[in-house]
Amino acid sequence: MWQRLWIVAAIIVFDQLTKFAATNYLTQHGEIQLAPFLNLVLVHNTGAAFGFLSGAGGWQNVFFIIVALAASIFILWMYRRLSVSDKLLAIALMLVLGGALGNLIDRLIHGYVIDFIDVYYGTWHWPAFNVADSAITIGAVLLVIDALNPGSRHRN
């Protein structure tokens, strides 16, 4: 049952290492352009996705900590109920859990989430994100793929 928890651990470690490196490097050197569509920037996101509620005055950090803890418990409960044939769903859940816990660690330690990847086109910038956000996004896409392909696995 717990054989895929290494995915969660790998995401958390990689997420925290990249945030540590980005914070140390970008604090000293500022924004770095890697490609005509990609920068490294240092953003302290006190809100949720896309900076939602970032200017809410501080209460949102506690709210997002509670949401992340509740979501993590729910994901573990769902994961426990999966059958062996639910491979794609299991991987998707572990990606979302790893990302949620990676950002939860930031909120508990710093009071905000460290974002540093800036994708843009011309003057339009996607909101900055991090490895944890990427894992959540990939996991969510896999959840949709799994939901749209119900015949791919046995349902109890």
Overview of this structure, please?
The chain has helices spanning 5-29, 59-80, 87-110, 131-148; strands spanning 32-35, 38-45, 113-121, 124-125. It has 156 residues and is an alpha+beta fold. It has one domain. Helix 3 runs antiparallel to helix 4. The chain starts with a helix and ends in an 8-residue tail after the last helix. The relative contact order is 0.19.
What is the structure about, briefly put?
This protein is an alpha+beta fold. It is built from four helices and four strands.
How large is the count of helical segments? 4
First-last Cα distance: 16 Å
* Number of spatially distinct domains: 1
Uncertain spans, ≥5 residues at pLDDT below 50? none
Order of helices and strands: HEEHHEEH
Task: Give the overall shape, derived from the CA principal axes.
Answer: globular
What average pLDDT do the residues reach?
89
Helix vs. strand class: alpha+beta
What is the alpha-carbon Rg in Å?
17 Å
Query: What is the number of strand segments?
Result: 4
Mind summarizing the main beta sheet?
A: 4 strands, antiparallel
Strand content: 5-15%
Strand order of the largest sheet: 1-2-3-4
Q: Tell me roughly what share of residues is in helical segments.
A: 55-70%
